[in-house]
Amino acid sequence: MRVTAAIHRAYEIAAIDDRLYAAFIEHMGRAIYSGIYEPGHPQADATGFRRDVAAMVRDLNIPAIRYPGGNFVSAYNWEDGVGPQEARPVRLDLAWRSKETNQVGLNEFAPWAEDLGIDLMLAVNLGSRGISEARDFMEYVNHPAGTYWSDLRRSHGVEAPYNVRMWCLGNEMDGPWQIGHKQADEYGRLANETAKALRQLTPGAEMIVCGSSNDAMPTYPDWERGVLEECYENVDYISLHKYFGNSSRDTLNFFGKVEETGRYIQAIGGVIDFVKAKKRATNDVHICFDEWNVWYHRREEDSRAWASWDWPEAPALLEEDYTFEDALFVACLLNEFIRRSDRVKIACIAQLVNVIAPIRAEAGGPAWRQTIYWPYQLASLHGRGRALRVAVDGPRYDCAVADDVSYLDIAATHDTGAGTVTFFIVNRHLSEAADLRLTLGDFPGATLLSHQTLAGHPLMATNGPGREAIVPVPGQGLGIEDDTLGGQVAPLSYHVVKLK
Ligand code: AHR
Q1: pTM for the full model?
Q2: 70 Cα to the center of ligand 1, angstroms
């Protein structure tokens, strides 16, 4: 198939917020315990955190991480996770029918994140708790000294405040499964009052209010309207979540879910604009897509297991084995976030280690990178700067979830400082190569700096411990001639092409 495309440096979508490549980690399954933290493991450091896992996290260049949940946070007492480890209570985690030992809490997690250069994005419990506990938590986290909670932190050996800027006001409060689930106006009022209180403690702190758990929720998108009508002026972001699957084994429809996500973002963008206009507000609210990933391979098996088990500690849960097809999907989804970077400022892959994660770690054994690690890493490393509009003209298809989906998916970023332009290209066609001619317009004389590709694997191929065949390799077949990037893009392949 023949595809023509064009860019121009003036046709910019937005400055990409680095936090588009943020992550999420929850106290559930083996994400924390025997994921990032496993005292006694041969790779554990003096504080019990695994060096092998940390090295894989470091290579992702993650700007921010949402913690500690998730559904978990809606019945979490943050005080259980601070102070001497031996005195911490073991609690039942209602969200995942597990036991939480509280051996990791804020004062263990924060240094781990800091060492990796990752900013914290902390979630407060607005399910079983309210304003008072959220205020106490922020005082413990951010107040310098001389008060009950800040001095308690100092007595726990943390002299300097953490100065956390990003605060999530609960989690998925629209979901009936959530402990303390609420109606939109009820939650909106609580979020508003909590945001006001927290901002008195930390002026300028960014507030993230819960939007829909997904776009199939019966309350979507009226939920966002109802919530924002209560709190618009006091929040900075509304969070969206969405997980994806291909149970029907229809690859093109699976890829089409990226277009569906574009509609989701667009619709919530419209709701934000509506509420802003209605309230005559002057501030802007953006989207924080703080849970996204593929999640379907083990979903039924997992829900059967956890409905019947007897409150285990750190059980294997949501340990999805990701395929090459999933890697292509994630590449396309990240392209969509780049294209929507005017609305989406923060996005968090959910999650980071073991639980629906790009990194897996065997208890007592090796850590390894799943297929989806690579598109996430390549976008995080190269997808910074400014998003450029790419006009793509080529064959398209219709599927159950979307019409008019381009087989060739291209996003582009312009790093004005480095003087580079990077293309993220996915050929979603099942069997045909694309003969691409991409006009570089006003980037005359650009040369090809690097080309990495993921290609040539069976769709259902996976990586595993000691078996990481799906990794980026130097790409071939694309070159520049007459200020045009051109060549053959193999079917079912992903390319990151950098020009200077
Ligand atoms: O990431 C797993 C779970 O998915 C989170 O706890 C919850 O917020 C979402 O439903």
Answers
A1: 0.98
A2: 5
